[in-house]
Amino acid sequence: MRFTNLDMDALRSFVAGIEAGSFALAADRLGRSTSAVSAQLKKLEDQTGTKLVQRAGRGLELTEGGEVFLSYARRLLNLNDEAVSAIHGPELEGWVRLGIQEDFGESVLPQVLGRFARAHPKVRIEGRIGRNVELREKVAAGHLDLALAWDDGTATRADRIATLPLCWLGPADEEPLWQMNAGEPLPLAALEAPCILRNLACGYLDQAGIAWRVAFVSPSLAGLWAATAAGLGIALRTPVGRPSSVRVLDAAEHNLPSLPTLGLSLLSSATPHNQISAHLATIIRQTLWGSLPEAWVLAA
């Protein structure tokens, strides 16, 4: 069997073009001509034997094969950059303090910590799983260097990493106990206040004229998932971290308000910029780019 060695420069141009939304913009960012980037894309298509992008109006969009290939391309580039950084990069020493939403504690945090520890073994990481308000306060006070937090409307474009869909959630194996026509207030399962998602749930129900009551309150996300799976209340979250015991409810089918998206931001403290925080921020962004659906991710 003959193996194909993919061209790393071509992979970088391909990913940059998709994230920029234009291969002309990617060429400018990479310091190459548009024709050179186009030639690299053609080389990748020849190597993979698959058409990766196609015309869509005045722009380009990924083919089905291109969508599959993009996630692999990002992973290959991440591993390449990690290997180079570990061998030839600056030998960083010191410590960094990271805060992260509980939703991402199991899916993202292990990948981030593992990659960073392998690349910079002499750096000590202090991690904290916390609520949105707490994480924002600690970043503002300089007690955290970085924090992955929901956007409360104050994040800058540079802070934002992704926009995630909000959804109503109920038990996976049965219908929610609440029926709108029964005349009973909708039972909510929510985290303790203050909670941005709890506030959103109450606000959207109020706007829709749907009576509600808080039926279950939990200090942790694990408790919220357990109550929702048991049918004690309907929850509002994003799909991230959702266990198999909980399913996304069709809003129209259950007479619930339709929901928008919620921004996800990587916040940095106001302390002077340092290489350790910068390297960790890069790994966080790369990990999320590789783990979240393409439609949710915002280009850098």
Care to describe what's here?
This protein is of the alpha/beta class and 300 residues long. Helices cover 40% and strands 22% of the residues. It is built from 9 helices and 12 strands. The chain has helices at 8-20, 23-30, 34-48, 64-88, 109-119, 132-140, 196-207, 221-229, 275-291; strands at 53-56, 59-62, 94-101, 123-130, 146-150, 160-165, 167-171, 186-191, 212-218, 235-237, 246-248, 261-268. The strands form 4 sheets. A 5-stranded mixed sheet has the order 4-3-5-12-6, with helices on both faces. Strands 10-7-11 form a 3-stranded antiparallel sheet. Strand 3 (94-101), helix 5 and strand 4 (123-130) form a beta-alpha-beta unit. The longest helix is centred in the N-terminal third of the chain and has 25 residues, at 64-88. The protein is globular. It starts with 7 loop residues before the first helix and ends in a 9-residue tail after the last helix.
